[in-house]
Amino acid sequence: MLLSHLLTRAGIENIVIERQSKAHVLDRIRAGVLEWGTVETLRDAGLGDRMDAEGKVHETINIAWRGRELLSIDTADVVGKLMMAYGQTRIQEDLFDAAEALGTTVFFDAQDVVLGDLTSDAPNVTFDIDGESCRIDADFVAGCDGFHGVSRVAIPEQLRTEYEKVYPFGWVGIMSETPPLPILLYANHERGFALCSMRNPMLSRYYVQCPIDDQVEDWNDDRFWSELIARLPPVQAAQLVTGPSIEKSIAPLRSFVSEPMSYGRLFLAGDAAHIVPPTGAKGLNLAVSDVRYLSQAIVAHYAGDPSGLSDYSAKALRRVWGAVRFSWWLTSLLHRFPHQSAFDQRAQEQELFYLSSSRAAQTALAEQYVGLPFES
Ligand code: PHB
User: Fold this and answer.
1) pLDDT at position 283 over 90
2) The domain 165-252 belongs to what CATH superfamily?
3) For residue 85, how far is its CA from the centre of ligand 1 (angstroms)?
4) DSSP string covering 328-367, please?
């Protein structure tokens, strides 16, 4: 939807084909922390009004470990940038509203989507809606259909290289209509990782690390809250306001990259090409940076410069790998791994100690957390 919006504003006709219903898309609870480059991309696209009114600016990244004092990194101080808490679901609403205002065609509930003639100058997409066959002929196809979509696998297997790391744990996440802690807080604890986040002043988002095979039914609200509280430092544990969860789910953690991100006239963006564990809050931000690069390359193509599209995959992957490496590193730093040896444990503690005592280490973390710069 963001790619469509950027293209429409540049006068380039486009059509969006969505497998799910609009209600389903608006119902899903997804990411919530925006890099400053994402904030500026949305503002520049005319999508900043509600985000600026309702989003909460984060000035610090906070890490609690071994029950000691909180390590608080002031990102404005160390790297001159901030982050914003504003839910992906809200961005999705803003994009649907904008699409309606601009008259964009969006097909929902599209089934049996097939991409055709991708290596020709005239690719097409066929699909069914309510049993009726549709076909769209286009100059380009953007595969923004997530990890389980049809786009990535439309690239012949022998032309794809996949890199994957599956972590031996998951996150149980809940949403509750309770006031959040005033800060975004990550906790490394002997019982496992925990995270306190927010969506707005009366909507909190919390996560705790759980064994990989756990089911949602294993985690009633009482168990969730007592486990979360046990993993927080005393001050935050005392501040926490609990209440009934309004959503609860378990997500496995995985890193995945498929290269290249283009094939003929097909260009992949976001989770269709890469997955990061949620620890660094990078998934949505990477999708935005892919789409930013792709929209610029398509606009340049119609202005007579084809080089942006031929460079798109390599350029996008440079930024993707930056975020993939960072998310892997932060995941390794903050979680308790099954069978973690005493050596691994001491090395992890030493890394946290180094981080809490070195401005250089804090700068390196913050620079990646707030988002590496975009290439021009
Ligand atoms: C969230 O608010 O959902 C969230 C925040 C920070 C993360 C991951 C998820 O690192």
Assistant:
1) yes
2) D-Amino Acid Oxidase, subunit A, domain 2 (3.30.9.10)
3) 9
4) HHHHHHHPPPTT--HHHHHHHHHHHHHHHH-HHHHHHHHH
Query: What does the pLDDT read at residue 67?
Result: 73
Give the residue-averaged pLDDT of 338-345: 94
pLDDT digits (tens, 9 = 90+) for 235-253: 999 999 999 999 999 999 9
CA distance 126 to 136: 6
**Is the distance from the beta carbon of residue 231 to the nearest atom of ligand 1 less than 6 Å?**
no
How far, in Å, from the CA of 196 to the mean position of ligand 1?
Answer: 8
2-32+87-160+260-338 and 165-252 in the same fold: no
Top CATH class of 2-32+87-160+260-338 equals: alpha beta
Does the CB atom of residue 31 touch ligand 1 within 6 A?
Answer: yes
For 288-332, write each residue's pLDDT tens digit: 999 999 999 999 999 999 999 999 999 999 999 999 999 999 999
Q: Across the chain, which distance is largest between two alpha carbons, in Å? A: 63
Residue 143 has pLDDT above 80, yes or no: yes
As annotated, the active-site residues are 58, 186, 278, 282, 369
**Cβ–ligand 1 contact at 185 (below 6 Å):** no
- Closest atom of ligand 1 to 197 CA is 2
Residue 30 pLDDT? 87
- The domain locations on the chain are 2-32+87-160+260-338, 165-252
Torsion of CA 107, 108, 111, 112, to 10 degrees: 40
Is 172 in a helix, a strand, or coil? strand
The residue whose CA has the least distance to atom 1 of ligand 1 is 32
Kindly state if the Cβ of 98 falls inside 6 Å of ligand 1.
no
